[in-house]
Every structure is written in C-alpha cells, then in structure tokens.
Amino acid sequence: MKIKDIFAKKTVFSFEVFPPKSTSSVDVIYRTLDELCGLNPDFISVTYSAGGSGNSSLSLNITEKIRSMGIIPVLHLPCINYTKEQIDNTLTEAKSRGIENILALRGDINPDIPPVEDFKHASDLITYLKSKGDFDIAGACYPEGHPDSENLDEDIANLKLKVEAGADHLVSQLFFDNEYFYNFREKTAKAGINVPIEAGIMPVTNKKQIERMVTTCGASLPHKFVKIMQKYEHNPEALRDAGIAYAINQIVDLLASNVDGIHLYTMNNAYVARKISDAVSGIIGV
C-alpha cells in the first residue's frame, strides 16, 4: 500500500528505526520490531547509513522483515555518495521484495569521501525515481531550515523543487518547539507546497542524545526544555520520563492543530515508543 493513500484517510502515525551497528547482532533490531509492530503504526521507516558506508542489504532485510510482519515499510535512500548503478541495484532489490515506499534523501556529506556526481540533490534522486517505477516517494523537510541553507526561505524554495520533482509527502526533521513547525507549515502553504507534512518528533531520554541531535541537525532547544533536561540529567529514569512527557505534550498540541501526521524517531527504543503510543492512541485521527 502506498503511504500517500493513508494520508487521504487519516492522521498518519509512524515510526523510524535504524539498523544496528556492525558490532551488534541483527536480532536486537528484530526483537525491537516485534514490539513496535505490535503497536500497529501506519508505517515504519528504516534508515540507511550515510557517507558511502551504508549496508544496503541489511537495510533491505530489515525493511522486508517489517513487511512480513504486516506493517508497511519505508526504505530510506540517500544519493550523494552513490552512483546510478548502485541506486538501480537497490531499486531492483526493493521491487523484488515488494517494497514500494521510499524516503528519498541527499544524505550526509562525508568529508573523507568525495561525493559522487550522479545525484547532487534529493530532488535529482526524486526525478530519477519517478522514471524507474511506481514508487511512493517521501521527501525530508526542515522546520528550522536545513543547516546548509542560507535561511528558511531558501530552504523552502529547494523543498518546492522536491515536490515538483514528484515527492508525494514530506517528513520533517525533529524539532522541540512546535511554533517552528507552525511557521514552517504556513510558509510552505504560501509557497504552493500542498502535499502532506508529517511532524518528526524525537523523545529525548539522555543528555548525550540532546547534544548529538543539536550538533547534527541544528534544532533549537526551548528554555522550558533546557530546564527539564538540566533538572533531571543526573537521574536517568526521571530524564527518560520527562523526555517522554515532553514529546507527548508536543504531539497532543500538534494533533489539536490538525497536523497531517506524526513520525516518531524511536531510536530503536520500544519502551519509549509504547509509552507515547499508549498516551496518544485515543486522539490520533479524532
């Protein structure tokens, strides 16, 4: 089933997982998937390691596993470090496994690996994907602007290129202040971007996680969020519960404001995903 068809019927609620590190057993993610699929999300997306070091077979195996468990899978597909031949091989594998939903990404630039010139932007990949089969294609968006953009207006202009290239819907980078998302949604509407936009929410459960996220994606930290983290940073269970509560409050506010969907960055933590799902399941789609 295509993800775009779900948006036409309801508020979408989805998860994101990532393949385990090479030092970990793949059974770890499969056990996590058992719990996540039991929560009956609309889909689960699987990240793909960036920088040219991604294990496409592992990502495809995990994606296929999700499909076998009765949940729609979405395969992340970065392009900046991959040739057309490599992308073609991945698409052939995806088709053979019944995978029809793809999140098209530029991918992170690895300073140690010269970028391949076949696809410079996500919009280039989306255009190519549209010529290669009947895939449902999602694109990424950034409520506070992509770190490489001069400003939000420039980033939204680039986002419009993705939509014009054929992106069927969008999923946002994480954010901790809903006002950034509302401002972004208003600007995209004025720019003529009219595809569904899922809000990306990450429940932060430890201090290192916060620091890593802020460094990699540039998300702003509201004062009330910082206060919560400072108060509980030395109490892991309290910090976890505070992070869950903060994410739930964000989601409730977003749902009340008629968001198209919620995409939960689970960090492969089924406990956190369950707590949030249980808290909001009664109001999704209401």
List its salient traits.
single chain, 286 residues, eight-stranded parallel β-barrel, alpha/beta
Explained architecture:
The protein is α/β, with parallel strands linked by helices and 286 residues long. It has 11 helices and 8 strands. It has helices at 3-7, 27-37, 56-68, 84-96, 122-130, 152-165, 178-190, 207-217, 223-232, 236-256, 270-280; strands spanning 12-17, 43-46, 72-78, 101-105, 136-141, 169-174, 197-201, 261-265. An 8-stranded parallel beta barrel has the order 1-2-3-4-5-6-7-8, surrounded by 5 helices. The longest helix is centred in the C-terminal third of the chain and has 21 residues, at 236-256. The chain is globular.
What layout of secondary structure does this protein have?
Blueprint: H1 3-7, E1 12-17, H2 27-37, E2 43-46, H3 56-68, E3 72-78, H4 84-96, E4 101-105, H5 122-130, E5 136-141, H6 152-165, E6 169-174, H7 178-190, E7 197-201, H8 207-217, H9 223-232, H10 236-256, E8 261-265, H11 270-280
Parallel strand pairs: 1-2, 1-8, 2-3, 3-4, 4-5, 5-6, 6-7, 7-8
Helix pairs in contact: 5-6, 9-10, 10-11
| Assembly of the depicted chains | single chain
Mean pLDDT: 92
Structural class: alpha/beta
How many strands, what sense, and barrel or not for the largest sheet? Answer: 8 strands, parallel, barrel
In brief, what are we looking at here?
With 286 residues, the chain is of the alpha/beta class.
